[in-house]
Structure formats: structure tokens, C-alpha cells
Specification:
Rossmann fold, 2 domains, globular, six-stranded parallel β-sheet, homodimer, 10 helices, three-stranded parallel β-sheet, alpha/beta
């Protein structure tokens, strides 16, 4: 039986620290505020939005919802983002993606001010991840993977880490963040030949494949830590990850469950970024404490 | 005996194509021009500068040398770059790095206009490499590695590619370029545990370790293609790569020599970028041909 790396204690530990930082901000008269921009009514967006709003309430971060109809034009969406950029009461912006097909994702995401880009979607944030400069905020999902491993004292230094998936939201930034932690990072994808063999060699396995239970025992080996980023809705409405949990449970050392794993931590990471954005702004305004 | 992947035929093939594109530009009254900015008198800078100038002369690209004394201030260097940004007669800028220690590399490299950044040093160019968007120019050295493999019809799709070194000049962009070609990319570095074992698993091995002959037979296996980016000056003044050539020669399928390998192709890639920059500017000015 593998150790189950539950997300809830990780999220709780982050939230607790954030509540203290929230008080420090309150004492300076600052109310950290997140704007959520949603186009249309996609089910996963609404479900993540609810989770974010619950977390924000718990920590004392305000939320402003900017809800736009499904037919919103690209120009109108860019204008909403520009308004949020110049709105001093907003510290961070969460934009739900993927956007409707007719909207240019690159133009919209890069319209956001880097200092409010708390989910690491702009090129400016991604370059911080790629160069390891630490400037800007990394995307919340790969950071949640790292937070989980940190919380459970899983050392990444020198480890063979394999990431399945090469998206800009999870796979590529995850690999770069592993590299910054001195892991040896490999990125697999749909064109990888004999992916099971590549995955079996990993000590740390981060899976963002987008296919329910795709990763079965042939991909796994004894001693591995498996972080399952996938969230797939089954026919009966239940959720499952990209990893066949039962098969993994009997082989690997540790695994995140779905639900209850990475997804549980992402909202807390987002809120952490909102507070950091508010703190940075306060510093810039008042000058750093001497 | 391994196949020796000589750089010279690769460079010649690029130069030949570029000479044709140079003529097309000449017919439009455009003289593609590269500015070389050098601070101080480092030996490798001068030697690469000479190679670039020879290639430029061969293809018909003009060079303007901006030679600054070793004690040049950061502000003065940034000002020189800004002058080149606004100088319409300049299409590309090559800035020799590393810069003197007292100069902020990030500030200087990002002062360069992305459209003149023919050696892919700005964040703006690097984000194109990281996202695979194809926007901007990639750094010339990792692109030279890819050009060599393309020239010798080495298919990258699905291959296990291992890059040794995680610099922003070679290692990280090389891994991302391999990924864009659908290889499975791994990045190794000084903290990698049992690097020889990781390297032996590779089908494509790109080495940018910075240590003469560090990669011996324990890192190599039958069937590999080895691209040696290292250029090290031996005590007797001769050059050698990061790979122990004699040991590699008897094991692997194909290897680039040092000298005569990657370094031979880099200047041609740079000139290709200068011509592309001039072509893009011509398009923007006159509109694309209909």
C-alpha cells in the first residue's frame, strides 16, 4: 500500500500561513482582492471558481467576479482585463481558460499585467519559470505539485523526475520547476516511444496526460512518488485521475489521490500568490521596511 | 568507427541558401547588416568574431563592429544597444557574453529589440523557444545542433534525447527545441545522480558541460548520436570538446568533432537570422508580396 499524499493538509498549512499574512496586510489597511474572469458557463470553471471562492472566504481574501457571456468578443475581453490592470483595488486576476475557440488566447493572456498574473499565464511569468529567475508567479497547478512534495518532505535534488505532458499550463513549467529544485527532468508526450519504459525509470512521476486511468502498472515501479494532475469525469459523474489508482497503490511508494490531491492545493497556491501580489504592491508603494 | 558529423558541409549548405536570399534582398536595395558589440578583448570573443566576419563577407552581409573598452559602464553599454535598436541600417545585433561581472546581464540583454536579437538572448526570444511559438530567433548554438542533425537526416521524432547542461545559452533552449521536434527531452546537470547511466540511455546526446573530455565511455552506448557543444583550450593551445573523442569514436554511431563541429555552424546560423531579420523588416515596410 502506497502512502496517500492528501492535498487537504497541504492546503490547510498554506491557508494557515496566509491567514497570518492577511492580518499583517489588514493592519496596513489593505484588503487583498482577486478578480475572477470567466467567459461562459463551463462546468469545470464553475466548480474551480466555487473552490477558489470558498478558500478566499476562509483566508479573508475578497473576490470580484467578472462574468461574461459565451459570445463575448476578444476586444471586449481584452478591455475587461485592461480595466482590471488599472484598478488599484485588484491585486490578482484569475482568467479561466481554455477560452472560446474564436478568441486569440495569446493576445488575451498577455494583456494581463505581469504583477497581477497570479496564475502564471503571461509570457512574462513563464519566462521567470523557464529561466528560474524567480520573477513573477508560476502557474498554480505545477506549483501545487511542488508544494505537495515539499509538505511531505520529498527531496527532489538529484532525483530522476519524469513529467508526462508538455502543456504550458502544467508539463513544461513543471519540468522547469523540478530543474530549479535540482531534479533531472524529462518531458514525455504523445510522440514519446515506449513511454511506459521511460516512466518506470522515474523516481518522481508527474502525470498530466488528460486521459482517465491511462497510467497503469506498466508505467510504474517500486519506490516511485506519483503526482496525478489529471481530473477526469467518469460516466457516473465521479472523478478519476490519469493514473489507475488501484494498480499504482500496490506498486509505488506514494501517490496523490483524485479527487483530494493536486486539485485541492491549487486554490491555496492561487491565494498565496494574491497575498504576495498585495504584499509586493504595498512594498512598492511605501518602500521596503528598513 | 563513428560517422563524423562535420560542421563544414552544414555551414556551406546554409551559406549557399543564404547567398540566394542575399541577392533577393539586394534587388530590393537592402544590405543586411550585423552589428557586433564586444566589451574588452577576450580571446574566444575575438576568435568567434573573426569567424562571423569571414562568413558575413562570404555571404555578402555587412558587419559593423562596436568595440568598447573593458571598463565600459552598464549605462554606456545599454545606450549603445539602444542606438543600434533605432538605427535602421542595422538588422541584427550580436552581443558577446559573458559581460564583465560588474554589468547586469539581464538589464543589458533585455535592452536589445527582439526583432534584432539574432542570437536569441532576450527574454522575448527565449519565451518563443519555451512555448514553441516560433516567434523570435532561438540562440544560435542550440539551433546549430539541430541544423547538423537535420543536415545528416537524423530523425528526432520520438527519440530519447538527453542534454547535459542547463544554461540559458545552450542546455535549456536545446531541450525545448528537441521537444518541439517531438523528441523525449531530458536535462542533466551537476546535481544529476549517476549521470553516466542517464546518458547511456540516450539515443541523442547533446553535451554542453564545459569540461574538456568529461564525457568518456561510461556515458556512451552503441547507436548514439553525440553532439559536442564544448570548446576547451588545452595546455598546448589545441582545442577539444567535452567528449573524449577517441572513446566515443569506437562506441557511438555518429559524433560531431571539436574543432570542426557545432562551432563551425554557429556563425552560419547567426547570418541566417540576420537575413531573416532583414527580410521580415522588408515585409513589414513594404507589405508582403501578393
Amino acid at each position: 500500500m502506497a502512502q496517500i499524499l492528501l492535498g487537504e493538509p497541504v492546503a490547510a498549512a498554506i491557508d494557515e500561513k496566509m491567514a497570518l499574512r492577511r492580518i499583517a496586510l489588514k493592519n496596513k489597511g489593505i484588503t487583498p482582492t482577486l478578480a475572477i474572469v470567466r467567459v461562459g458557463d463551463r462546468g469545470d470553471d464553475i466548480s474551480y471558481e466555487r473552490s477558489v471562492m470558498n478558500h478566499c472566504e476562509g483566508v479573508g481574501v475578497e473576490v470580484r467576479q467578472v462574468l461574461l457571456p459565451a459570445g463575448t468578443t476578444e476586444d471586449a475581453l481584452v478591455q475587461e482585463i485592461k480595466n482590471l490592470n488599472t484598478d488599484a483595488s485588484i491585486h490578482g486576476v484569475l482568467l479561466f481558460r481554455p477560452l472560446p475557440e474564436e478568441i486569440d488566447d495569446d493576445r488575451v493572456r498577455n494583456a494581463l499585467s505581469p504583477e497581477k498574473d497570479v496564475d502564471g499565464i503571461t509570457d512574462s511569468s513563464l519566462i521567470g519559470v523557464f529561466t528560474g529567475s524567480g520573477v513573477g508567479f508560476p502557474p498554480c497547478t505545477p506549483q501545487a505539485c511542488i508544494e505537495i512534495m515539499d509538505h511531505y518532505s520529498i527531496d527532489l535534488r538529484g532525483k530522476k523526475a519524469v513529467v508526462v505532458g508538455r502543456s504550458l499550463v502544467v508539463g513544461r513549467p513543471a519540468a522547469m520547476m523540478l530543474l530549479s529544485r535540482n531534479a533531472t527532468a524529462t518531458i514525455c508526450h504523445t510522440k514519446t516511444v515506449d513511454m511506459p519504459a521511460v516512466c518506470r525509470e522515474a523516481e518522481i512521476l508527474i502525470i498530466s496526460a488528460g486521459h482517465a486511468s491511462m497510467i497503469g502498472k506498466e508505467y510504474l515501479s517500486v519506490g516511485q512518488v506519483v503526482i496525478d494532475v489529471g481530473i477526469n469525469v467518469n460516466e457516473d459523474g465521479s472523478l478519476s485521475g490519469d493514473v489507475n489508482f488501484e494498480e499504482a497503490d500496490s506498486i509505488v511508494d506514494a501517490i496523490t489521490p483524485v479527487p483530494g490531491g493536486v486539485g485541492t492545493v491549487t486554490a491555496s497556491v492561487l491565494i498565496k500568490h494574491v497575498l504576495e501580489a498585495a504584499e509586493k504592491r504595498a512594498e512598492t508603494k511605501c518602500g521596503p521596511a528598513i
